[in-house]
Amino acid sequence: MPIKSTLRFALLVSGLLLPVGASAASATQPPGVRRALDNAGIPPTAVAIWSQPVEGTAPALSINAGEPMNPASVMKLVTAFAALEQLGPAHTWKTRIASDGPLRRGVLEGNLYLVGGADPVLGYERLWKMLRRLRALGVERVAGDIVLDASVLRLPPHDPEAFDGRGLRPYNSGPHGLLLQYNTLLLGLHPGKEANEPVALAAEPPLAGLVIDNRIVTSDAPCGTWYRDLQASIDSDRRLVLSGSLPAACGPRTWSAAPLPPSEFGVALVGALWSEVGGRLGGTVREGRAPGETAELFSDDSAPLADVVRDMNKWSSNVIARQLLATLGQTSPRPGSDEDMVGAGARAAGAALAAAGIDTAGLVVENGSGLSRIERIRADRLGELLLVAWQRPWMPEFIAALPVAGLDGTARRRLGDSPARGQAHIKTGTLNGVRAMAGYLLDRHGRRHAVVMMVNHPEAAASAAAQDALLEWLWSGGG
Length: 479
Description:
Elements: E1 12-13, E2 16-17, H1 31-40, E3 47-53, E4 61-63, E5 68-69, H2 76-87, E6 94-99, E7 103-104, E8 107-108, E9 112-115, H3 124-136, E10 141-142, E11 146-149, E12 185-190, E13 200-204, E14 211-214, E15 217-219, E16 231-234, E17 239-243, E18 245-247, E19 253-257, H4 262-276, E20 280-281, E21 285-287, E22 295-301, H5 305-314, H6 318-331, H7 341-355, E23 377-378, H8 379-390, H9 395-400, E24 424-431, E25 434-442, E26 448-456, H10 464-475
Parallel strand pairs: 8-10, 9-11, 10-20, 11-21, 14-17, 15-18
Antiparallel strand pairs: 1-2, 3-4, 3-26, 5-23, 6-9, 6-22, 7-8, 12-13, 12-19, 16-17, 24-25, 25-26
């Protein structure tokens, strides 16, 4: 079913979302929540709150819950729900290795094809094992080309600069039919002992043809937001320039970059790894499509969807979310349509919620990751999603994928020494002008609650204390 927006879009001012219009509150904010919001300068109309015991019949708290709001990365709960509902927690993705020529005396006489299946988590360790397996099967040299086939997904153009102008940041990478290593280059940074000493660099995975020009130096500044002064840029000669400073007080750190589009990243990675395993190549590594007459040599399956959802939600991976949405579009095509699979995935996500009895009024899905200025959902409908998920056979996988407040994932620094620490599985989300959370909390009496809170306001970044206050209020029995 098509997803239609029923809201008036908030105006964008200085890159920040202004709060959407809200109806009068249907309940009173808990005192601790109200104080924290007052301290942050956030009015009640910019906040939506909803909570209900999972075994209850009506919400215990509902404030502005009928207003569509930007959920930031909490939108990944919609993507996870739809994927688990439509595909099942045991769903896997298959990557195939095929050839169009015979193997004689260690030489593959023809092209070798790496055929993508839209696997969201095909890391370079698995890719290395696949190429090593080829060598073990006797392939010493490929006479033709190594062809990377990403045609499984029909995708719209993707501009990594479009959202915030930071196109080299991995969170801006788009989906791809043969996504490798999340399209991410990991940069291990090791500061010196004194100011102005060079910062040592260890980059992985290897990317053929990419030159890294490391100009980062050590500083004597305190270790606050350690990556604040780091910059990355790439020139037309594939030279990745790293600049800025890293405080010695921080010790070793891991940074990351997406220096190349997914197709070019794949070509560079496969070229480097084939050489590393001792393979030789008569042609080049390139993009292309496998012809119908190829012979499959072997295939490799991904981890199951349950594990992929955990990877996505524990650390809020945008590229995994985008891959899942595109997969939903691939598996739910509109008959006779050439609709791109991101748009089809958005439609399929809405249809999955509707089929589960969840009202999709106000739902806007753009890419499924929450890295969007137009994605919207109502707090009460997000709460309803949590309640429906609680009744599903895949409920344990859904909940286990959520960060545990105070312990792991993106919520590991929440609640501090609060008695509610470790009692909430919550997905968090943050954008300029947006801060949100949603998940489940076990109170001190052993009752579990579904809880949602979304803030759309220029001062939203300061609302973490209010969200923690809501969790503590629920834990103490306030809900």
